[in-house]
From TrEMBL:
Pfam family, one: Porin_O_P
Coiled-coil positions: 24-58
Keywords: Coiled coil, Signal
Superkingdom of this protein's organism: Bacteria
Signal peptide limits: 1-23
Name by which UniProt lists this protein: Porin
């Protein structure tokens, strides 16, 4: 019996030992498998990290390339015209233009007139800068081909606090003359400009200097009495203009100015005339005074100007006193002045351009702007008792910043002939 119990105990002990050993083997195997899975997972994570780092390098390189392309490529702006600027801003080129298409009808009196249509202006303009120099070249196909239609053609350089201009440009004289034709109040400029007092002498070849601040300008020019299409001559001229705006803010501007012009006819010079279309363009004309080129005499002009833009209201006036030299007898004294104004009917305000001392067109919203306009022009040769005047009333409709329609009625009065011809004129104007 005793031996039986001992055998049973021994069997149980051996069975327990065998079970423990089996359990230990299973645990070791499980741990080994877990270690293997952990090593595989670690390897996978390492591989993914390597891929992520490589992709990040690619992304960084791509971003760098895109940034290089963006910052290193020329900037192209197509708002209005076409303007291309180099990435460093040192080079620039732009193409613009304007189309002014007019229709004229006359209420005839004494003078013979013919109603017609014409392209008053059809211009292409190339401008820009290179190596610190500016340039501008403008051709008006409405005025003719080749040199007949050449307008601004110059190079310019900023220096000594201002800008020097060399070439073919407008001398610094007459406020409305220096206003862009895209921003004129009426279809034609007043008598005290190249439309009358400086007939045929709008652009001259020479050198000019203009200095300007926020509310002042001071400019002077010396030039040959030769336009692009006229013959070579030894005539010389000079002009100067100063302006000051004692009031100049976003809604109110008061402008004051004065200018001087001197022209000295010499060998080969054309006649220096003051001729006025008193009933609108393509209407009858009256010569008021002439200094012949062969006489080698002088034409001098002193003038003052005032203008203001106050909310929707605008006014502008110039008064010029001229003397036309004569080879025999007394010089001829000519007085010319104008007063013009406008009122915006549905908002809008004519802004001031401090850099040039003139006023521009109002900013146009989606609804467009309506403007009522009026002007009185006067010119008289006191020596010869010749006098012409005109009244102009008009309406401007600004469709958008590029498109404008203009309607003018002009009543002329020629005291020399007694003619009182009137004109109805319509313009479709597009600029870019």
């Amino acid at each position: 019996m005793r031996y039986s119990l001992l055998a049973a105990a021994l069997a149980v002990a051996m069975g327990s030992t065998s079970f423990s050993a089996a359990a230990a083997d299973n645990r070791d195997q499980t741990i080994a498998e877990l270690k293997a899975q952990l090593e595989a997972l670690t390897a996978k994570v390492a591989e993914l990290e390597e891929r992520s780092d490589a992709q990040s390098d690619v992304n960084i390189d791509t971003a760098a390339q895109l940034d290089k392309i963006t910052t290193g490529s020329p900037k192209i702006d197509t708002k209005g015209g076409v303007k291309v600027t180099s990435a460093d801003g040192k080079f620039e080129a732009s193409i613009g233009g304007r189309i002014h298409f007019d229709t004229y009808a006359f209420d005839r009196d004494i003078a013979s007139t013919t109603g017609t249509t014409e392209f008053r202006r059809a211009r292409l303009t190339l401008g820009g800068k290179a190596y610190g120099w500016e340039y501008k070249l403008e051709q008006d196909f409405g005025a003719g081909t080749n040199l007949d239609g050449l307008r601004d053609a110059y190079i310019a350089k900023s220096a000594l606090g201002g800008k020097f201009t060399i070439g073919h440009f407008k001398p610094y004289r007459a406020m409305e003359e220096l206003t862009s034709s895209n921003e004129l109040l009426m279809m034609e400029r007043p008598f005290a400009s190249a439309t009358g007092l400086f007939s045929g002498r709008q652009f001259q070849q020479g050198v000019g200097y203009l200095r300007a601040g926020e509310n002042y300008t001071a400019g002077a020019a010396v030039f040959n009495l030769r336009g692009a299409s006229s013959s070579r001559n030894e005539g010389m001229g000079a002009s100067g203009r100063v302006t000051f705006a004692p009031i100049n803010n976003d809604n109110n501007t008061l402008h004051l100015g004065a200018w001087y012009s001197y022209e000295n006819a010499n060998q080969g010079s054309d006649n220096l005339s003051a001729s006025f279309n008193y009933a609108g363009r393509r209407g009858p004309s009256q010569n008021i005074a002439t200094t012949t080129g062969a006489s080698r005499n002088e034409v001098t002009v002193y003038a003052v100007e005032a203008a203001g833009s106050f909310g929707p209201a605008f006014f502008q006036a110039e008064y010029a006193d001229a003397s036309f030299g004569q080879p025999l007898g007394a010089d001829q004294d000519v007085t010319s002045y104008y007063v013009q104004g406008s009122f915006m009917l549905n908002g809008g305000h004519k802004p001031y351009k401090g850099a040039t001392g003139v006023f521009g067109s109002p900013k146009v919203a989606d609804k467009g702007l309506w403007e009522l306009t009026g002007r009185y022009d006067y010119a008289e040769n006191e020596t010869l008792n010749r006098e012409v005047t005109s009244w102009i009333f008009g309406v401007n409709y600004y469709v958008n910043p590029n498109l404008r329609f203009m309607l003018n009625y002009t009543q002329g009065d020629n005291e020399v002939t007694g003619d009182e011809t009137a004109q109805y004129a319509l313009r479709t104007q597009f600029s870019w």
